[in-house]
């Protein structure tokens, strides 16, 4: 499997809005409004249905399912609807529900704390609470705090990873996803998004590609089966990186031309606690602190905190979650919701978070039968959401005290995140904020439209069981959204 390039959103590559639409009035019944072309400056609300119907009834879309709902932001009026009440696999549109519930329950200023406690002479325990933003820089800060306290030697360094209970990988996630960085394990002590970054570099012609880790110590954690090759100039380049089921063997296949740039890939770590402790020991060593023994354990009383770091506020975590569609952040936030109630017997933290999420959305006014969630990111194909549910969430969040923060967490068309390279040179640039979603056979887009000549709109579009290239489906969705920006009162 070819992993997506590290740090780039999954839905970046697509064809831009290019298709012009023209219709002949002779083929339309007299009572049907004339459908404008894509270059038309404005359309009336009663023209929207034929415009959208023609777009999604194209022959190449005949085998897929479309769910669409368009409404004014502040009213119950429906401008367009197709199977809006039915379930669809939402992909990352599920993050809208997760982030809405997190913002309602935790507040924009909520931060996630990582603490070090002293359990005895020379015994320190690191307690993680699932901060998905924790990086090596924060480990350096913790090490500096310990050094200022006069710590120069640690007899026992204990990693307490018990804050999140349950499996670190959702059982319904697909194997090709959990290998990649966007399917990284979710635990209490997350570091560098639980991913390892590597570059594959061409050598002389005929030789295998050279593997270089961003963090050199990763080289000792993997067994490498390198069946790649460096080829002549101007030959096609393609590299596949995969893990075996046990996780410790990395298989590299493919080729790169001798004069090509390195191929950068990220993979999910298979032992996040070992990953954390190894990196923390390195940070401690740089500060002149030695560690005799490291291991994972639970059961501390959290009495004497001697060092700590905090995440950015939730408002910033939401931006990473939605703008860049970060699965790990969404899953961590889902589990963080569980702090609102004690775990029941045999209940996982993720399940407790899902229960809080549903209760929160129901209290907001979201129909609890309009969706079924099994994770917080949308990576599972068992998630089911109706366009109706997504529109409800968007409308109710727009009416909440957290409206501005929630809206700021969404990508802006032609400007940021997963929409940065979409809608370019159209009227949607800067006026549309929406959450993308993408997996094999699934494309989704839901958000807000600030129409210059009409009232603000909210919309949700989901396509399932698609046999067409994702770029083609996205292009059709983008055309629909552009038409929404051209609505005017007639």
UniProtKB/TrEMBL annotation:
<keyword id="KW-0732">Signal</keyword>
<dbReference type="InterPro" id="IPR012338">
    <property type="entry name" value="Beta-lactam/transpept-like"/>
</dbReference>
<dbReference type="GO" id="GO:0000270">
    <property type="term" value="P:peptidoglycan metabolic process"/>
</dbReference>
<protein>
    <submittedName>
        <fullName>D-alanyl-D-alanine carboxypeptidase/D-alanyl-D-alanine-endopeptidase</fullName>
        <ecNumber>3.4.16.4</ecNumber>
    </submittedName>
</protein>
<feature type="signal peptide">
    <location>
        <begin position="1"/>
        <end position="24"/>
    </location>
</feature>
<dbReference type="InterPro" id="IPR000667">
    <property type="entry name" value="Peptidase_S13"/>
</dbReference>
<dbReference type="GO" id="GO:0009002">
    <property type="term" value="F:serine-type D-Ala-D-Ala carboxypeptidase activity"/>
</dbReference>
<keyword id="KW-0378">Hydrolase</keyword>
<keyword id="KW-0645">Protease</keyword>
<comment type="similarity">
    <text>Belongs to the peptidase S13 family.</text>
</comment>
<keyword id="KW-0121">Carboxypeptidase</keyword>
<dbReference type="Pfam" id="PF02113">
    <property type="entry name" value="Peptidase_S13"/>
</dbReference>
<dbReference type="GO" id="GO:0006508">
    <property type="term" value="P:proteolysis"/>
</dbReference>
